[in-house]
Amino acid sequence: MSVEFEDVSDLCAMVDAAKTTLQLPSTATNAEVYHKGFEVVLQHITTTFSHNTAKAQYLRLAVLQDINITEKENEATYHLAHRVGASYLMHGKVKRAETILLLALSGLNKLHGDATDVHPEVLKVCGTLTTVYERSGDYKKAIAMASRVLKAQEAQLGPKHRETLSSVTNVAGLLLHVGDVQQSEDLYQRALVDLAQVVQQEQDDGPTNNKPGKTVGTGKEQKGVELDLDLDYLTCLGNYAILLEKKPDPDSQELALSYYKRALRGKETLLGKKNPDTLRSLSNLAMLLESQGSVEEAQVMLTDCLQQRTEALGKDHSETLSSRAAVAGCLLKKGQHKQACQEYQTVLTGYVTTLGPSSPMSIQAVSDLAYSLMANEQMEDALSMYKKATALRLQKYGGSHPSTLKSFFDTGLVLVQVGQCKEAVQMLKAAEKGYADIGGREALREKCVGIIGFLEETQKEGEGEEGGEEV
Fold it and tell me: Tens digits of per-residue pLDDT, 23-63?
């Protein structure tokens, strides 16, 4: 697809610079440059227009759109398609990334036949598609892709290879998304134990730069390396903290806080404070602090994270929007309801634009906006948004999913506040039935039963009074 540039000389200059870097003749076509290294063109754009992130994003996406990945059906084309798809993903264009990556996967599957489950390039595409499906909220597909990669790595590399253990951590996180807490925790603990053994073995073996899968420092830095300076271990530790944070007991909360702090300190040392992975750890730590009442401290951290992500990724990238939502949550807790509503509206618009209206992040943004509207005493607007979130969750997840049941409950409470008690009872009964069916939510079920009982008794009393007056 061709793109009309506002200033063609900008792109020409970037392509010419890339020709020099790639050691291509000045007569090389754009297609030849893109096939050998379009990433170099993207990097030149990023560097040249670092002062104008909007224009840099525009030009980078224009380059990606201008690459022909359907001209020839061969290995090189499918490798190029994988790289282009991964670049779209990096720029937050998840749907476009999925389309191109599926083209690459389909082509590679045809080329490699029986060997497709173990072919390195196929597994790379599967790994990138895992991230695509995770970002779009299709966790079943994400788990299937990640499990395919893990199975191949266990067979080819062994169960305790670094790459294998990274996949174990990845699958554990995806299982947590679908509520399989026990299996997720088992995998996290397996990865932490095995990674500790790997690091210890590498310490005992001494420094070397050619060990398969080795990622702990280089040269002298490897000597005496600690777990908290091992990137794979830190990643697993930080992700495991997400699981621990969800547990209600204080010990798990404290352990989660400790793990988040360790992960952040280690990544700042290894990667620097502006690295995207470091910023994820910063965001996770800040949100836990906010939930524990340290709102001012959390807001400072989250605002810094938002600024860094906006500059590096653009304002509509999913991770930037996640930071903006987190900042809005702090504003809400501080009573700045109007500002929170404005921020949540920006978040919702961004998610719908980049991920579509039915993505989990978009639906959560609808729910967040509804809550902020309610806090700002815009009850009718809040009710409309809660109903929208309920309908979207019902369509995407079904009536027994915890998120859908939470929407039933929240919508029921708002209906009570606006005086629509009959409809409120219907919503709360749907929530109560769902909690009874899935089990393990007895406190929530009892809360529904209590509110329903009160509303029904109030309705009976009202009907009795009306009847008395008629007599």
Answer: 999 898 888 888 888 888 888 888 888 777 778 878 888 88
The residue type of 19 is K
**Of the candidates 149, 77, 154, 145, which has an alpha carbon nearest to the alpha carbon of residue 111?**
77
Instruction: Round to whole Å and give the CA distance between 10 and 16.
Output: 10
Among residues 350, 352, 355, 348, the alpha carbon closest in space to that of 370 is found at 348
Neighbours of 223 (CB within 10 A): 10
429 located within any domain: yes
Mean pLDDT over the full length of the chain: 87
> Where in the sequence is the domain holding 300, given as residue range(s)?
293-377
CATH for 408: 1.25.40
Alpha-carbon distances, residue 159 vs 171, 184, 192, 195, 244 (angstroms): 14, 17, 13, 11, 25
Phi, psi of 439 (to 5 degrees): 75, 165
In a domain, 2, yes or no: no
Residue 243: other Cβ atoms inside 10 A: 19
Q: From CA 165, how far away is CA 102, in angstroms rounded? A: 26
Question: Are 383 and 418 spatial neighbours (Cβ–Cβ below 8 Å)?
Answer: yes
What tokens were used for 5? 């540039």
Q: Could you tell me if 372 and 407 lie in one domain?
A: no
Residue 103 lies in a domain: no
How many residues appear in the chain? 471
CA–CA dist 109, 370 (Å, integer):
45
Question: How far is CA 269 from each of CA 196, 226, 264, 272, 274, rounded to the nearest angstrom?
Answer: 19, 12, 9, 6, 11
Same domain, 346 and 406: no
The C-alpha torsion from 372 through 376 and 380 to 384, rounded to 10°, is -10
What does the DSSP 8-state code read for residue 247? S
Is 425 part of a structural domain of the chain? yes
364 and 311 in a common domain: yes
Helix axes 30-48, 8-22, angle to 10 degrees: 110
Domain count within the chain = 3
377, 408, 441: which is the final residue of a domain?
A: 377
CATH number at residue 324: 1.25.40.10
Mean pLDDT, rounded, for 308-337: 92
Q: Is the pTM here over 0.85, yes or no?
A: no
Amino acid at 362: S
Note the helical H segments in 52-207. Answer: 53-65, 75-90, 94-112, 120-136, 139-156, 162-177, 181-205
